Amino acid sequence: LGNNSFREMCDREKDTNVRLSLPAVCVVWQTAMIILFGVFIRYDHESDAHWVEHRKHLNLTDIENDFYFRYPSFQDVHVMIFVGFGFLMTFLKRYSFGGVGFNFLIAAFGIQWALLMQGWFHSLDYTDGKIKIGIENLINADFCVAGCLIAYGALLGKVSPVQLMVLTLFGITLFAVEEFIILSLIHARDAGGSMVIHTFGAYYGLSISWMLYRPNLHQSSRLQGSVYHSDVFAMIGTLFLWMFWPSFNSAICDHGDGQHRAAINTYLCLASTVLTTVAISSLFQKHGKLDMVHIQNSTLAGGVAAGTAAEFMLMPYGCLIVGFCCGVISTLGYIFLTPFMEKRLKIQDTCGIHNLHAMPGVIGGIVGAVTAASASVEVYGHEGLVNTFDFEGKFKDMVPTTQGGHQAAGLCVALCFGIGGGIIVGAILRLPIWGDPADDDCFDDETYWEVPEEEEEVSSSFICLGFVLFSYQTNDAVIAFCCSRLYCIQSPLDGSTAQFWDYSHILM
Where is the Ammonium transporter AmtB-like domain (predicted)? Predict the structure, then answer.
């Protein structure tokens, strides 16, 4: 009886007006961040003004500051978080604002809370009670946020911005705890986050989606698909993620051979995944045509699976095998598992994160455990074995076979935190106080955004259907994505129309 009453309360008529709740949450929580940062956060020795004295005392040069080693990787990871994930979520025909905009909101709040939560576990200076942050903390904060953005993928179009803020608050907290348990207590290695980021984030989001199951979601089915231009924008996100994933997996590896090897391993896994994704997509589609959903998502699965073993001696051919398997499994997941999960398991996975992050994350954890357990002095060398697996301090007597068991334990912890935490947070988000949309209003930007008119008709019947320019500047080059103007002219005589493209403004 109590359970039925709870369900009835949660399923009552929806009110999507967040005029008071969203500003209140944003302002109050940002104020709390300001206060907490004032109390706890300080610069570390490499970003503090006393670095000059520290440098002279240790006879160092400015180029040995960690900033110059880590910032290029931080820049790539930052672009992945805000551009890659954001644009990947623009595939829905009427939810591009929500995909990019709410991604921005989650990330901006999440990195602040992550600096605090991870700082309390990893960077707290017990001499003065302050958290000392530097460039590596910023990278780890981005990693922490990635878990929440992955979870958002399962809920895309079905939740309010207030719910997303709550999801991020709890998600960052859970992430920081499970990361500390896996990396510090269990002593598992997970440079690219197959377990800590992808497995946790995916099952966290899937569990929340299960708790927020909408039996009448078919009422919004007209908006659940994509259109040509939305798929193109999503593909831009895919390409940014694909290009920068080697930086993601190698960003916090030890300088030298570990970081170098992580980039190579990820690079090869990703390349192999593309070919098998194309093969399986063509094989299971009528007339051998490719499905853009598979190309946008499954081509990234190799990067996810390479994460845990990124800095291990996986060997180039081993990377190609991992990528090969992930392309097959991820694409088959989109074809068979996603419909099964929605119909039988009551899990509505908008972006298919189970196929892109969950399964490849588990594969990555297993690959990491097997690779660690099979490590040997002949392959790594004694110093290489100690350095790669951090066999120092209280872990100096650990052997590779034991390390493999610890890796497997780390995967189990990630699964438990993701599923358990998701169920608890899902129950909280189901309360009817967050302004979530009704079943027939899902996947529509108009619920939470001021949406401009799609077409602006001019008296001459000359209509510009769209112009978009996006550019990303690196130290070496400017990459510009430009969709030309598509014009439609309507004849005043018979009403017929003609279309043409204007390429005159494309940037070179």
Answer: 61-436
